[in-house]
Here is the input.
Amino acid sequence: MNLDLSEEQEMLKKTARDFLEQECPRSLVREMEQGEKGYSPELWRKMAELGWMGLVFPEEYSGMSGNFVDLIILLGEMGRALVPGPFIPTVVSSGLPIFHHGTEEQKGNFLPEIASGELIMTLALTEPSTRFDESGTEAKAQHQFTNYSISGTKLFVPYAYVADWIICVARAEEGITLFLVPAKSPGINLTVLKTIASDKQFEVVFDDVKVPTANVLGKVGDGWKIIKQIEEWSALAWCGYEVGSLQRVLEMTVSYANERIQFERPIGSFQVIQHKCADMLMDIDGARFLTYQAAWKVSQGLAASMEISMAKAWTGEASRRVCLSGHQIHAGIGLFTDYDMELYFRRAKAMELAFGEGDFHREIIAQQLGL
Amino acid sequence: MNLDLSEEQEMLKKTARDFLEQECPRSLVREMEQGEKGYSPELWRKMAELGWMGLVFPEEYSGMSGNFVDLIILLGEMGRALVPGPFIPTVVSSGLPIFHHGTEEQKGNFLPEIASGELIMTLALTEPSTRFDESGTEAKAQHQFTNYSISGTKLFVPYAYVADWIICVARAEEGITLFLVPAKSPGINLTVLKTIASDKQFEVVFDDVKVPTANVLGKVGDGWKIIKQIEEWSALAWCGYEVGSLQRVLEMTVSYANERIQFERPIGSFQVIQHKCADMLMDIDGARFLTYQAAWKVSQGLAASMEISMAKAWTGEASRRVCLSGHQIHAGIGLFTDYDMELYFRRAKAMELAFGEGDFHREIIAQQLGL
Amino acid sequence: MDFEFSPEEKKFKQEVHQFFQSEPELCAGFMEEWHGGEGFGPKTWALLRKLGEKHWLTPTWPKKYGGLDLPYVYYCIIQEEMSYWIGLYACIGTAMAGPVILKCGTEEQKDFYLPRIARGEIEFCLGYSEPQAGSDLANLQLRAEDKGDYYLLNGQKTFNTRCHFAQYHWLAARTSSEGPKYRGISLFIVDLKTPGISITPLMTFSGERTNDVFYDDVKVPKSSLVGEPGMGFYYIMEALAYERVTPVGAYQRLFEQLLEYIKESGKGSDPVIRQKIAQLAIELEVCKLFTLNVVSAQSKGIIPVYEANAAKIFITETEQRLANTVVNIFGLRGQLQRDSKWNVLNGMFEFIYRQSLTELIMRGTSEILRNVIAQRGLGLKRR
Amino acid sequence: MDFEFSPEEKKFKQEVHQFFQSEPELCAGFMEEWHGGEGFGPKTWALLRKLGEKHWLTPTWPKKYGGLDLPYVYYCIIQEEMSYWIGLYACIGTAMAGPVILKCGTEEQKDFYLPRIARGEIEFCLGYSEPQAGSDLANLQLRAEDKGDYYLLNGQKTFNTRCHFAQYHWLAARTSSEGPKYRGISLFIVDLKTPGISITPLMTFSGERTNDVFYDDVKVPKSSLVGEPGMGFYYIMEALAYERVTPVGAYQRLFEQLLEYIKESGKGSDPVIRQKIAQLAIELEVCKLFTLNVVSAQSKGIIPVYEANAAKIFITETEQRLANTVVNIFGLRGQLQRDSKWNVLNGMFEFIYRQSLTELIMRGTSEILRNVIAQRGLGLKRR
Here is the structure.
């Protein structure tokens, strides 16, 4: 029983925080919202140099052999700084399934390039029904000799514009299957979606897109198991990111409350403000513990579906409460686009919706409880 | 547009308050919790003398021709004083349906006696499934010559021990039917249930209880329509009662908060206490407006199913929030059985459950909204 | 007791309703300008003038100043309809500045400003907040020095939302630093084209433009003063009292649209969603009743201080919950904005999810308003 | 990082688990006495003695005083199991008085009290609260005058829960009225049979007996004083620090029973109920993790002040929500009490619905604890 980080983990955390305070100011975050790419190739390269993209892969793939807890620690710092970019889509939603389910060749091809920062990947899963379950996949993959032809409309594909490869989920004759698709393949059409977080999610239309059979990831027809893993890992990754964000919201809020004087005293001395902050802290602690517990279970190879759903449901709802309190305490100034508060508020909603909000995960929990 | 009470209504309210402050101290309420009867025949008689039992019946039945708003005003004062006894079961759950659906003979027999306080009635509706819909009624009524024979188990029959007549809901061959049953009929067996509010609800077992066919209330087989009305009226009556209770909880709490000194100041001067009280006020205002609006609609003969469900859902949940805040502010002293606070807390839960809690009524609202 | 409007009032409501219904283009144009964040534009002015022609901007004012001498409830009816059709329900000129001028202004001020307000030709901008004076308004520092022939104004205002399109600043300035802070404040009407005034945009994250306003040796005539010097704080409070009603028409319309979507999308069969929609319906009903209660009191000439605060808190907090609940019901598509492909109901709920934060803070934060309810509504002690 | 117990700890947990499992009669008897409201009775004393025989009441104490010299985490394991099986998880003697005696008591006090505490033979009752000293404990007024040979005690305590069955009062009294209030307080151990003490029952509405305790010229020997005079307030705070863990075993067991009922009753197919049960599961998991966090810190000798307060707040507030949610899921039958026909799960949730209010207030109200979190945990300014 020990809820502390190890020395190495503390070091990872400190390094990441120092680095990002330097390299990812909020001005960069805003700039990325405006730009087409939505991420900074320079920052991406530097993060890769620090080994972050390879953190969870073994050394044979140029990785650092970290575990899921390490990843969550890193993501927490990224969330604190609101690092924009395709880190989770590349590393968690794509790299991890390739590592666990790819052929040796696929692993050899993709993982070192991910680790070195040369490769950006993303996942094309959701369709217009926005269902997270198997029935939500209607995109078709037709077997034609040595190829598959994929057709369908995918929504909320993050960073599709800058991705080199897309993992596309489609329905082959045998069932749900994952395909590794070069992002610039003929027949792929992108339309950017304008989201609350301005975080570069795309509609990706696949119109008779051809990929060789060798590009199947995992077994043909047996893809939904992998998707469930990807959904869990990605949900958990977003929890890690958001926990870091919320911690920063609380720090900003406490420090503003101690500085802002109204009625001749710091507003942080008003009991109602104090209690709001105390509640924020409890919300965040709950999110952090649930997230770390789930990550620890994943890192131990233990079943963690219920713990992940608990983390995601709680973190999503806590993030709204925390950001709302942060805004209430910042009052007027928090509303302006040159103040950081609103960035966190908008991203919290995007995170909450990604890979399932509360009701979705509570239903999973109910199932896990045997109901 | 006018949300005020009329002069006559203000007078009714004042008279009721003055009378009950004198005649129904909380010591009486506690005494009734302990006793078998659960009400004070003396107080009952005095209330009848004031015309309360006949408030909503026409003068021809010795009533006062009041409307539902008048009734809600009176119930508010009864709730404020926590008047124990079978007022709602007798007047609202039994008297009103007899008035609206009884034969001339039934009306002539029952209503003047209710109005004079000589007759106590109650409703035997709920069964062990505790469902509020039609399928919840499994008690059987068999037609045998000029009689019906009723068999079944009814739960949560209020004040059955002191009732003279029971309206029993049972399933005849033609469908759900209401029967006027003398409470002392052979084959009726009572067991008191021990409830959070110690409010004398009973299990009533009907074992081959014979009643003449003339004792059917309304049409044979067409009783569910009446039941729905009874459920609505009774739900709304409880809202009126509870609104008065909650108003008293707030007054007690504000006055305690202004008197109780800790840290050398009245605890009511702490901002968190102030905000809790402000929230209590808003909760109660919401309950009051919803309740009055629904009662006004009923009094105008307008459809009010949705408004009643809104009032009941809100009032039930608000009552818990308000009583909980009241307890938090009273802290230690509120827990003791010689202090009034806990009486209101326990009754609030009983009221919340009576005739449907929030989820039940929200589902009705959804239906009313066309979902 | 009567929870409905009288037959005449209902008829009038119907008339206003039909007016807006018959002007879909102006309404749409208005919404575009207003939600676009820049505030009043040509469509808005055109609509206001049309309303002005009917004297519906100021129905309670005396006829000589462009009103209809109607009872207060008619004003509320118009507000509800405006809220329902175009989201906005009041101008500063009609709702706050105008009534104070009417009560405390000079004859010249009345003749000069009131008819133009009534005709929908001019708008005012509130000039209260400063960087160090938000909730603590009495702490405002912008100085107005009496120079004999004129006042000399210096200082900064912030969060002054309509300054870039209004003609006049409804300005609270410090004319004295003696005595209690709130006694040294006076109220002025300043033409925003006066030399020395500079206006800098501030953008909120719901895309609404508001402004910093800087006064740098601005000279205004003595006739700019409204009422007595040093009484500005009281006038401000009084003006607030006129503007206590928070109409809920806009939310009712949104809810109608939402309901239709829920039915059509098939989501209405989900018991969990049914519960949520029903709960929103209850809360909106409470909003409506809180507003009716304020209207009912004001109609009788009572100033319902705590009731109006309760309405403002409850309505704005409900708006935030409403938006959040609906965005989540929409799922991933809930995050899509007005101008995005695949958005739901034109992204209105995403917009409100952001914009509601402004509502929670404007016109008094929920914290300050709860203090007032507790102390003035319930009599809880201050110390 | 490790969210589980070590293999040895798990083995020990299993051993404790099996002990309780093998004593169904004592456990049932205990529960009956405790929830019956009278507190310790013969079954409770018998169970405590059995635990004492195994040294499980005081596993972290030195062996010479009846402990096992085990690390702190073993104590928490026992607490969790006690909570799971019998609801109660600590005695005042083992958890608050004992540790202070161990640290600050005289050798005589240690030899006299500690072994008997460890064997489960005696219990203490907290003597802190007074009518005018609840949250504001430093305001306590019961006087202890130093009369040379003895102390003379006069005054009243209230809400002293275990006084009618404990042997000793763990009494905070005022020995000086000079200087800051909290510096004039001293701590005493008083035999409750001392002449001049009278105990009057107070009943809470969850049926629990607590007491007013009156001291009328009560003489106690000088040796009753614990530690230094005037240091009582610090000892009290220190004792609180020992008792910061809020075990959640009892709630986990309730949740297990609830889950079984939901499954058997068929209510588990209702999507709305599924959501509620899942939400309770999440909240109970957060409770568990808050507790683990406190245990993890205390195991390292860190006193987790804000964390323990957060755990206490969150756990007790969850308990109230849990009981409310479950009572409502049960519907009309939710209101039925333990001894009623037709109750559900023996009426336990109805009982907890009432009893949780005591939990919310005991050991610091949520209000006071949130102040501490804000000021000490987050560094928000006091003025």
Summary: The longest strand of chain A covers residues 147-158. Chain A has three domains: 7-120, 122-221, 224-368. Chain A has a mean pLDDT of 97.
